[in-house]
Amino acid sequence: MKVDGQSFRSIWVEGDGWTIGAIDQRRLPHEFVIAKLTSCEEAADAIRAMLVRGAPLIGATAACGVALAMRVDASDAALERAYAMLIAARPTAINLKWALDEMRKTLAPLAPPDRARAAYVRAGEIAEEDVAINQAIGRHGLGLIEAIEPRKKPGQAINILTHCNAGWLATVDWGTATAPIYLAHDGGLNVHVWVDETRPRNQGASLTAWELSHHGVAHTVIADNTGGHLMQHGMVDLVITGTDRVTANGDVCNKIGTYLKALAAFDNGVPFYVALPSPTIDFSVFDGVRQIPIEQRGADEVATMTGRTREGKIETVRIVPDGSPVANYAFDVTPARLVSGLITERGVVQAERTALARAFPERAQNSRQGDIV
């Protein structure tokens, strides 16, 4: 995608052939800063501190972290240390484990002198695979948007609500939930996006709105609690979100607040779709509410907010009284019964065990519980 006319991805290998460049998403939307990652430790910290975030991008960053580790020490012990360090960085997004498993599967059979180069090659392949997957998601999701247009009056926009950031900043390029929106916009459809602010880190207000603005897509930022009201008044035609993990039976784990949007959509007859690459499907998990670990992050994310003052300074202020306890659950789980469909690189799939297994038989068979068909 483009930033001020210049093409960017969210992560890349720098011109020296080994340093990893990434957009520091903590600084957006007020500052556009490129971070340089030069070690596995820095890659793990980038994931942990949300310099990079979004399930597909976390996976790509972890792959790059392994490559950085192999450049310094390509021994078996170093490979296992890198794996352990990176997988501990974020517990919820399954793409992290998938990418690390791919890297270990590629590197473990090789002699140590051959591992560094192979690691960069495989990390690059994972990035390119993500881009291709997201483009396919966009093509399949576009049909859902196109189907709405005949029902609109001339000049009326197709209104899409999204939650958190599942745009190109959450992937290597294109995004998941935003890929159909970008294709619709580029194809001349009149689309408008309701952008949930997405407390506590405001990824919608800070990142999704920034993306859409730079691409020229009409959008409006709303408070998280506004979506139900808009649906009641016929102001939302379609909900599309991303996800950090989907279970074998179609439960969707995504940024906290997604479940409430799904309930409101169900109550008002608004289609609720989830866009995801297949590595996000965890065929070893069948009950999202009980089995998916929900990350609890630091209290400061809720207790403080960062923004730009009228004088142009970037400052962080406290909004919670001193001494008040804070809970910060980062994700929630939307049961499959509330999901209209899953937009994948292989088409729109029913959020149901058999449908997912048939769409991705190679992944279902390789799971630890491969008897789900």
Automatic annotation (TrEMBL):
Substrate binds at R53, G54, A55, R90, Q203, N254, K255. Its EC number is 5.3.1.23. One of its GO terms (molecular function) is S-methyl-5-thioribose-1-phosphate isomerase activity. It is an enzyme of class 5 (isomerase). Signal peptide: none annotated. The record marks C164 as: Transition state stabilizer. This is Methylthioribose-1-phosphate isomerase.
